[in-house]
Every structure is written in C-alpha cells, then in structure tokens.
Write a structure and sequence with these properties.
The protein has 121 residues and is mainly β. Helix content is 0%, strand content 58%.
C-alpha cells in the first residue's frame, strides 16, 4: 500500500554534507509524521529527526545544530540535510512515516529499507 524511495546516502569525508531524501507513494490518505532513524551499534533504531504535518520538528541531541529536517507535502517527501558530519554518524539510516491509507483503517508506521551513510577519510 505504501512504498518508499530513499536516496542520498553514500561516502563523505568528516565535516562534509549529505542530503537524504525519502519519497512515499501508494494509497496515501494522509501522512502525519515523517522522519529518519538510524541503527545504533547495539542494533536498535534511534530517532535522528522527525517532522509533523504542522512542520513541528524533533531532533536527537547528538545532531542538533548539524542536521535539518524538512518535508514537501505535495511530493510526500522528507529530506534530511546532514552537515558537519562525523565518523560516529556512520550507519544505516531508515525513513519512517506515520500514514493513514483510508478513512476506515487506523494510521500505522511504515519503514524504508535503509540507506547507508559512511563518514570517513
């Protein structure tokens, strides 16, 4: 019902920048919240940044001042501008969205397949 196309990951040097994009498609009635999570060394997923349908934002303390999240509702797309990247930012990043597909089904979380970010010299 809902599919994601993620892009923008790759290799960058410390201090560099990347922009991640995630476009949602399918039978979408409303997208309430979109965001990015990343895989921690222990295997769990931790919140990086999220943005609601009123453009309210939420950032992990470790990325505040470095990352900026934005969304384009016309394209059902969320962006994560990643600046001043550090080696410890290296991991897999996952797109997330809370989506209602129709009026009778409650909204649920959907997840992308993940895109790898590597920060290294």
């Amino acid at each position: 019902q809902v599919q994601f196309v993620e892009s923008g990951g790759g290799l960058v040097q410390p201090g560099g920048s990347l922009r991640l994009s995630c476009a949602a498609s399918g039978n979408i009635f409303h997208v309430y919240r979109m965001g990015w999570y990343r895989q921690a060394p222990g295997g769990q997923r931790e919140l990086v940044a999220a943005i609601g349908d009123a453009s309210n934002t939420n950032y992990a303390d470790s990325v505040k001042g470095r990352f900026i999240i934005a969304r384009d509702n016309a394209k059902n797309t969320v962006y994560l501008q990643m600046n001043s990247l550090k080696p410890e930012d290296t991991t897999v990043y996952y797109c997330n969205a809370l989506v209602r597909i129709n009026i009778i089904v409650q909204p649920r979380d959907y997840w992308g397949q993940g895109t790898k970010v590597t920060v290294s010299s």
